[in-house]
Amino acid sequence: MATVATTQAQQKVAIITGAGSGVGQAVAVTFLANGYKVALAGRRPEALQQTIDMAKDDAGNALAVPTDVTDPAAVNALFDKTVEKFGRVDVLFNNAGIGAPGINLEDLTPEQWQSVVATNLSGPFYCTQAAFRVMKSQQPRGGRIINNGSISAHAPRPNSMPYTATKHAVTGLTKSASLDGRKYDIACGQIDIGNALTDMARRMTKGVQQADGRIEVEAVMDPQHVADAVLHMASLPLEANIQFLTVMATKMPFIGRG
Questions:
Q1: Which of 94, 104, 245 lies closest to 170 in space, CA to CA?
Q2: CB 50 within 8 A of CB 40
């Protein structure tokens, strides 16, 4: 990997995965509007460019790095390019994630299972590993990693085993990274999101299956509320950490689900 710069950038530097749409897009635009230099990672270059265009006057502080987080070499290249451009990495938002079709678990294919595991679990691991290598070596040392969990890290929806299992596993990554990062001044926390109105969650407004089999419309919220929460987590000094934060549509069926 690239040699880490030894001087502190004037602005904080963030890497955001899955930055081409949904929560990642909202977080990237919000970070840029609040003075961050941001490396945007995602599989689709045109989607990353759309996010940069949304930043308007702040677009000059953005760097698009097309990245497949399931590929360790691509992840290492993402961090190399970010350090080369901006000098350091202060924040990593592990946001990229996918789900499998909402079908009976006995009908899921091995390929569908492995695809979700590769993106939702291996991807954050590769990014966290790369972030540790950079953050422990830069001056000033340290940084912050924020993982996108889900309320599925606490309670599943029907027919969601690959997604739910990986989001439970992300909680394990968060706890382990928090512990292992202490000696390097690296803080790690997790945001668990419920029903932010992204393309992935738009189906909630038309009705989704509940635990008892009923189909019900669910409440949703503006993704900007999530972006503001992630910005707050990132803004804390490294001596303080929000370990777990849940942001959800107030009236969605989560508390008392089932």
A1: 94
A2: no
Closest residue by Cα to residue 148 from 119, 186, 108: 119
Question: Which of 7, 92, 90 has the alpha carbon at shortest distance from 41?
Answer: 92
Task: Tell me how many helices (H) and strands (E) the chain has.
Answer: 7, 9
**Cα separation of 79 and 77, whole Å?**
5
| Per-residue model confidence (pLDDT) at position 199 | 75
**Spatial contact of 186 and 143, defined as CB atoms under 8 Å apart:** yes
Q: Determine if the pTM surpasses 0.85.
A: yes
Under 8 Å between Cβ of 192 and 150: yes
DSSP code, position 5: P
The tens digit of pLDDT for each residue in 162-189 reads 999 999 999 999 999 999 999 999 999 9
Burial class (CB in 10 A: 0-12, 13-18, 19+), 135: buried
Could you give the strand order of the β-sheet that contains 62-66, starting from the edge strand earlier in sequence? 62-66, 37-42, 13-17, 91-94, 143-148, 186-194, 244-248
Amino acid at 220: V
Active site amino acids: 163
Look at residues 135, 132, 150 and name the one whose alpha carbon lies nearest to residue 194: 150
- Which domains occur in the chain, in start order? 13-248 (3.40.50.720)
Q: Is the separation of the CB atoms in 189 and 241 below 8 Å?
A: yes
